[in-house]
């Protein structure tokens, strides 16, 4: 059982290291990726929802740091159309604002505030895996020895 | 120290003999699933200290958790461990099917296992809702629609059932207390039955060969099995840590009611095409057919034969079901999302 205890200790120490190594408040911001917000704005318009609600989403999309998967100028045009109270034109523009065909929200999420901690988690994972592997090999040898005796 | 503990807790009683084959990875899958569940409970206990289970605060609290390094690591571990839990549970079910250990006298163990499978599905479903983003809101809307579809039987799942608590808060209670309570209780019965009926011998060969192998097989103490479960659980933890490092789980935008633009997680994805073709009722009929079929299995496959090579029709059926599951999941993954609850 000794490797099991050792592995658990390594895991706990690594987790403590991970949490202390990552400076609080200096990680990525809490804003949503523009693509997710633009998809929501489009969905609101498609189902006949309030264009103000869609505008709120587009405003956040315009402020987002992560603009991957969208065409920002088209988003701005769509916003202008909504401001001019032309939701049909806004919807039409939004449909062309994405760089990929498959528009859905899965995989479009706020990344957690991890940088250093991710590295520490990876190192801890590798360490625990090594120790667990060592424990399994040792256990196998002990079982074989017990069988032979 | 160990003799002191043994005298007081009778730990040496755990060293009862089990066949050597019980220590193979295939026969440790159930144990790894239980180990992953323990880790889920530990990470879950930590996360509930920071989660706000109200409609007004849930999304913001998960965003806050995602921005704090230690909380985000534990949340990501919880997410990946849940996926590993489901994968090992599924592999355990497939191994049990192939080895036909659901046959007499172990029908009860199998039936309890099927209920455990359903409870695990409930835990994953309720867990998906808790993050209260677009995907979660859509999952909850499905819950409400299904409650309507079930009529009187759906009262428990409807928002109208409780005037004081929102459905999200009740979902939280189900996730952190009701379902784990049932899971632990049923797991106890499952393990008790495994101990009482003993681990099934390997199925290969004729009944005589199986009996002979069972008689001659070397025995090891159960504690060796527990140690292996412990090490494999650590492998699961290591995998979850590595996945956390490579793909930490995030959170989607705050949900907009009445729209449907997400797809379910991989373990529910096979239902998505059925929902597209047959509507919401497929979400009731599909799981009912799956769970009903699994529950009836020991009573349909009644022969004493356990060798998979001599149970070809059943093996073929199993392969067809697995292929269909894979094909449906892939099809759902690549299709455009369709609205089933909103007006889109």
Q: Would you kindly provide a written description of the structure presented here, covering whatever features stand out?
A:
The complex is a heterodimer of chains A (149) and B (344). Chain A is mainly α and 149 residues long. Chain A has helices spanning 2-21, 34-46, 51-63, 72-83, 87-95, 116-148. By secondary structure, chain B is mainly α. Chain B is built from 12 helices and 2 strands. Chain B has helices at residues 2-9, 29-47, 58-67, 69-98, 107-130, 134-149, 167-197, 207-216, 222-246, 271-278, 282-300, 312-334, and strands spanning 17-19, 219-221. In chain B, helix 2 packs antiparallel against helix 4 (69-98), helix 2 packs across helix 9 and helix 4 (69-98) runs antiparallel to helix 5. Chain B is globular. The mean pLDDT of chain B is 93. Chains A and B meet through helix 1, helix 2 and helix 6 of A and helix 3, helix 4 and helix 9 of B.
In short:
The complex is a heterodimer of chains A (149) and B (344). With 149 residues, chain A is mainly α.
Give the helix level of chain B as a range of percent.
55-70%
Low-confidence stretches of chain B: none
| Poorly predicted regions of chain A | 21-30
Could you give the order of the helices and strands of chain B?
HEHHHHHHHEHHHH
- Identify the biggest protein-protein contact and residues per side: A-B, 61 and 55 residues
Strand content of chain A: under 5%
End-to-end gap of chain B: 66 Å
Q: Which structural class matches the secondary elements of chain A?
A: mainly alpha
Helix content of chain A: 55-70%
Radius of gyration of chain A, whole Å:
25 Å
Structural class of chain B: mainly alpha
Average pLDDT value of chain B? 93
- The spatial strand order of the largest sheet of chain B comes to 1-2
Figure out the total of helices of chain B: 12
Total helical segments of chain A? 6
